[in-house]
Design goal:
Helix content: over 70%
Structural class: mainly alpha
Number of strands: 0
Shape: globular
CATH superfamily: MetI-like
Number of helices: 10
Largest sheet: none
Radius of gyration: 23 Å
CATH topology: MetI-like fold
Order of helices and strands: HHHHHHHHHH
CATH class: Mainly Alpha
Strand content: under 5%
CATH architecture: Orthogonal Bundle
Length: about 290
C-alpha cells in the first residue's frame, strides 16, 4: 500500500470515529478522560517536576499558584505532584484487586455453574455469607484485622468483590452448560474439564471483562474511603484517599488539600463508569 493511499484512508477513519462519538458521547467522553488518566499513571514525570514527598515547611499550606498548581499541604509538599503520583498507586491497587477478584470469583463461579450439585450449593452458601456484609463494612473489617498495609488493602478489596464475579461467572456457565455445543462436545468424548476451560470459559470471559470496567469506579470509591479512614496506604506514600485524610483537619484553612484529590476521584470514577456502561451496552447488543 502506498503512502498516498494510507493518507487518503485517514479522513474516512476519522469520520467513522466522529460518527461513533456523536452516537455515544458519554462513552467518547469517558474514553478521553480514561486515556488521560492512563497517561498520568504511566508517565507522571511529564505532568509535574515536583517531588510528591519532598517537605518544605517554609511553604506549608500555600494557596494554588503558578508554582504550585494545587497549592501545598501542611508540610509544604506539592498537592498536584502528590495527586499525579498517587494516581499510579491508587489505580494500581484497584486494578490488582479487580484482577484477583475476577480470577478467584470467576474461576469458582465457572466451576459452580458448570458442575452444579453439591459443589454449587457449598460455594453458593459461602458466597452468601460474604454478601451478608455491606462492602465498606467488610473492607473495614478485613483491613482492621490485618492492619493498614497496601497488600492487606488489595486483599480486602478482593474479598469484597469476589462474590460479584462469582455470580456473573456462575450465571454465564449455567447458561452455557445447557447449550447444544456442550452436549455435542460430550458426545465426542471430550472431558468435562476440557469443555469447561476451552469452550465455556471462552464464552463467559467477555462478561467478566466488562464487569471489571463496570466495577472499577466502585472499587475506586471504596479504596479511597478506606484510605480516608487510615486503613489504606500509609504516609508519606501518596494515595488519593490518604491525601483526603491528611487534609480533613485543614478543610477551613486550606480547602485545596481535600478539594483537588476529591475531584480527581470523582472525575476518574465518572469516566470509568461511562466507559463501563458503554461497553456493557455494546455487549448487550451483541
Amino acid at each position: 500500500m502506498s503512502v498516498s493511499s494510507i493518507a487518503s484512508s485517514h479522513p474516512g477513519r476519522l469520520a467513522r470515529l466522529a460518527k461513533r462519538a456523536r452516537r455515544e458521547p458519554d462513552l467518547a467522553f469517558g474514553l478521553v478522560i480514561a486515556v488521560f488518566v492512563l497517561l498520568v499513571v504511566l508517565f507522571p514525570g511529564l505532568f509535574t517536576a515536583h517531588s510528591p514527598v519532598a517537605i518544605n515547611v517554609d511553604k506549608a499550606m500555600e494557596a494554588p499558584s503558578a508554582q504550585h498548581l494545587f497549592g501545598t499541604d501542611d508540610v509544604g509538599r506539592d498537592v498536584f505532584a502528590r495527586i499525579v503520583y498517587g494516581a499510579r498507586i491508587t489505580l494500581s491497587i484497584c486494578a490488582s484487586a479487580l484482577v484477583a477478584a475476577a480470577l478467584i470469583g470467576g474461576g469458582f463461579g465457572l466451576l459452580s455453574g458448570f458442575v452444579g450439585g453439591r459443589v454449587d450449593m457449598l460455594l453458593g452458601r459461602l458466597i452468601d455469607v460474604i454478601l451478608s456484609f455491606p462492602p465498606i463494612i467488610l473492607g473495614v473489617m478485613v483491613t482492621g484485622i490485618l492492619g493498614p498495609k497496601t497488600l492487606n488493602l488489595v486483599f480486602a478489596l478482593t474479598v469484597v468483590y469476589v462474590p460479584v464475579f462469582f455470580r456473573i461467572a456462575r450465571s454465564g456457565a449455567m447458561a452455557e452448560a445447557g447449550l447444544t455445543y456442550v452436549e455435542a462436545a460430550r458426545s465426542l468424548g471430550l472431558s468435562e474439564p476440557w469443555i469447561l476451560f476451552h469452550h465455556v470459559t471462552r464464552n463467559v470471559l467477555p462478561l467478566v471483562l466488562v464487569q471489571c470496567m463496570v466495577l472499577f469506579p466502585l472499587v475506586l470509591q471504596i479504596q479511597a474511603a478506606l484510605g480516608f479512614l487510615g486503613l489504606g496506604v500509609q504516609p508519606p506514600t501518596p494515595d488519593w484517599g490518604a491525601i483526603l485524610q491528611q487534609g480533613k483537619d485543614y478543610i477551613l484553612l486550606a480547602p485545596w488539600m481535600s478539594a483537588f484529590p476529591g475531584l480527581a476521584i470523582l472525575i476518574t470514577a465518572l469516566a470509568l463508569m461511562l466507559v463501563g456502561r458503554g461497553l456493557q451496552r455494546r455487549m448487550d447488543q451483541r
